[in-house]
C-alpha cells in the first residue's frame, strides 16, 4: 500500500512537469483502475468471508477516482468542492451510523434517490454551461435528466411508503396508466424538440425535468408495500443507468462502466424478485396488487377451524424435535423479534435440536433483508437456507416455526389455479410434521388471500406479538 | 458518429456483460449489501459533480455541481459505510 502511494507520488511529480500526460493519459488510466477495483470489489462480494474486503476495494476505487478528478486542470475552485465534500460526507456518515437494520430498505431507497438526482444535476450543469452542444450530447442530456429525475422522485415516494409517511397500500385512480403514458410521450417529444431546435432547448430541458419528476411520483404511488423489493431493485438499477447516461454526457468512461455495473446489478435483482413472486415486472408495476378495492371479501368455510395453542403448551413438541426450521417474514422485522429468535435457536441447539432458517426470496422489504436482520442478531449465515435448498428438507422436519410470513407459505400457490398467487414458488412448510404459525390475528396477508395452511391438521396457530411469543417460548424452554 | 462515441458504446456494452457475469455470482444472503454497495458505486457521478462545481466558478453550473457533490458524497460515504457495517455482521 505504502509502496503504491510512494510510486503514485513519484509519478505525480514527474507528470506535473508535463500537463498533457496528466490530463490525457494519467487521469483516464486512474479512472480505468477505479473501474477495475469496482469489478474486483463486486467479485469479492460473492462470499460473506471476502465481502468486507470487497467493499473496501470498491471504496478505494472511488477514492482514486475522486483524487484523479481533482488533478484535472479545468478545476479552479477547490473551496466550493471542499465544502461540498465535507457536508455530503458528514450527512452520509451520520445516516450510515444511525440507521437501524429494519430500516435498511428506506435508507437504500433514499440513497438511490440521491444518486439519481446527482446524475440529473451533473447533466443539467453540463447543459447550462452554455457551450454549443453536439446533437448527440443534447440527446444524452435529455435521457440523463429523465432517468435521474424519475429515480429521484420515485425513490422519495418509495422511501415515504417504507418509512410509513405515506400509506403502503397502492394509490390508484382511473386513467392512471393513460396519464403516465401521455406524460412519457410528452417527454419524448420535448427531447426531440430540444435536439432539433437547440436554441429553444433550455425550456425543453426544464420541462423534461419537471415532467420526469412527476412521472417518478406517479410511477411508484400505485405500487403496494409488499411489492417494494421489486421497486427498490429497479430504482437501484435506474440510479446506475442515470450515472451511465451522465457518463455519455460528460464523455467519461468511469461513469459509463460503473453505471452499467450498477444497472446490471439492479436488473438481476429485479428479475430475481419477480421470479420469487411468479409475476412479470409489468404486473408488479401496473397491476397495483394489494389495493383495498381488490381484496374481495374472503369466502371462509364455516366448517374450517383453526387450532390455537398458548406458547406454554408447545414446549414439549419443541423439545422432542430433531430438526426445526424457522421461516421469518416481514412480521419478524416489524416485531423486532430477530434477537429473541436467535436466543431460541441457541437454546434449542443446546438441547441437541438442529435449527435451520428458510429464507424466501421476497421475504422482507428488499432483497436479502431477512439475512441482514438475522446477521445483526448474530445468526450464523450458514444456518440460513434459500428456497431450493430447504424445500426438500421439510418432509424430514419435525417442527416448522413460521414467524410473520404468510403468502410465501400458502400451499394454495401449488395447486389452486384460482388463487391469485398460483404458481408462486413457496416454502413447503405444510410437509413438515407440525407447523406453528406465529401471527397477530387471523387477518389475511397483504394481498387479502386466505391462507389454507392455517386450516391444515398439522398446523397450530399461536396468536400474539411475535417477540412476546418467542420470549415466552424461550423462558419455558430454559 | 465520431470515434470516441463509438468507443464509449463499446465500453458500455462490454461493461453491462461484465456486470451480469459478476453480479449473478453473488448469493442471495448478500443481496442487501450488494444493493447498498452498488448504490455507493453509482455515486461515481461525483466525478462529473466535481468538474461541474470546480471548473466555472460563480455560474449556475457550479451551483448545480455543488449540490450534486453533496448528494453524490452522501451516496458514496453513506453507501460504503453502511455496507461495511452490514458485512461485518455476517458471521459463520
From TrEMBL, chain B:
Membrane topology: Multi-pass membrane protein
Compartmental location: Cell inner membrane
Annotated GO CC locations: plasma membrane
GO term, biological process aspect, one: NADPH regeneration
Keywords annotated in UniProt: Cell inner membrane, Cell membrane, Membrane, NAD, NADP, Oxidoreductase, Translocase, Transmembrane, Transmembrane helix
Annotated TM spans: 6-24, 36-56, 62-82
Broad EC category: translocase
Keyword Translocase: yes
InterPro entries: NADP_transhyd_a_C
A Pfam family reported for this protein in Swiss-Prot or TrEMBL: PNTB_4TM
Reactions listed under catalytic activity: NAD(+) + NADPH + H(+)(in) = NADH + NADP(+) + H(+)(out)
EC number: 7.1.1.1
GO MF term set: NADP binding; oxidoreductase activity; proton-translocating NAD(P)+ transhydrogenase activity
Limits of the NAD(P) transhydrogenase alpha subunit C-terminal domain: 9-92
Stated name of the protein: proton-translocating NAD(P)(+) transhydrogenase
Upper lineage: unclassified sequences, metagenomes, ecological metagenomes
